[in-house]
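ZP: hey, is the fe (ii) ion complex queued? I don't see it on the tracker
AM: it wasn't, my bad. submitting now with these inputs:
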Amino acid sequence: MSSSPPQYAGLTPSQLSTYGENGYLILPSFLSPLEITSLLDETHYLLSHIPLSTHPLTKFTTEDSSSSDSHVGDDYFLTSGDKIRFFFEEDAFSPTTGSLNRSPQQSINKIGHYIHELSPSFKTLTLNSTIASIAQGLGFRDPRVLQSMVICKQPGIGGAVPPHQDSEFLYTTPPSAVGFWIALEDAGIQNGGLRFAKGSHKRWPVRRRFVRKPDGSGTEFVTDWKGSKFPEGEEQEENSHETEEKEEEEYTLEEVAAGTLVLIHGNLLHKSEKNTSGKSRFIYTFHVIEGENVYDGQNWLQPAQGKGFSKLNDYAK
Ligand code: FE2
C-alpha cells in the first residue's frame, strides 16, 4: 500500500537556527497516523518475506569485525546499496547452537539499504518535494539520497549503537551528510531512544572513517583521517572538541512520538542504548549528501554501476 507524501512546510528561520546550534532538529507530527500505519504495514510485509533460503544470516554490528568466516556476510552487506536486504541482531543467535532463538521477523536488526527506491511506500515518503525543500533549506544544492533503512530495535535484543558521526560512514569532500530519522513507533528511554551530544557537530571533526578494506574483503574503521573534517563554511579550529573520548560527551535523550522527523548533522555525535524493554522501536532513516561534493571511493556504500544516488532535485517543486 502506498501512502501520500507528507505535507510539511519548509524549515523556518527559527528551526534552522536550532539545527545550527544543537546539530539536530526535532519535527513532531511529520507523519499522520494514517501514514505511520501504512509504513508499519509495509515494514511488516517486508519482514514476512525474508528470503531465508538464500540468506547468509548476516548479523549487523557497527563494531569492527575481522573473523575469517564473515566474507559471505560482508558481500551481502557491501552489495546491499541497491537492494532490500535483511540484517540480523547479534543476540538473535544462540551462542551455543548458532541458530535463531526467536522468529526471523523478530530477529531483524535492520532492512536496507535501497528501500527509498524499491519500496513504493518508503519511496513516496522519501523522494518528494517536501523532503527536497527541507534539504534545500539546509543548504544542499544537489541533494542525493542514499543508505535508507528500517531499524527495528527488537524487544529485548535490539543492540546498542555506540557514539558515532554519520559522516564517518558516508564521507564526502568536504563532509555534507545529514541523517533524516523518522520514528514509526514511540522512541524513548525504555526502548533505546536516540541520545545526542548537543552542539558536538561544532567541536568534533571527522577523524575516523568506516571504509571498505583495500583488498575488498570487508570493512574497517580507520582513524587519523587527514582530509576535510567539517562541512563547507563550518570549518573549526583543529582539536576544537572539549573531550578526547566520544563517550565522555554529555548525551541528551530525546523521547519522540511516532511520526516525528529528526534531522541529524553529519558531524553530530549520537548513540542509542540497547532495547531491554518488551516494546520494539521501529524507525526509518535515510541520508542526504551534497551531490556537488566528491563522494569518497573508500566509503562502505558505493553507488551501483550506472545508478548513482537518488537525486532529490528531480522531485522539487
Ligand atoms: Fe547515525
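AM: back. Residues 164, 166, 179, 270 surround fe (ii) ion (CB under 6 Å).
ZP: great, adding it to the tracker
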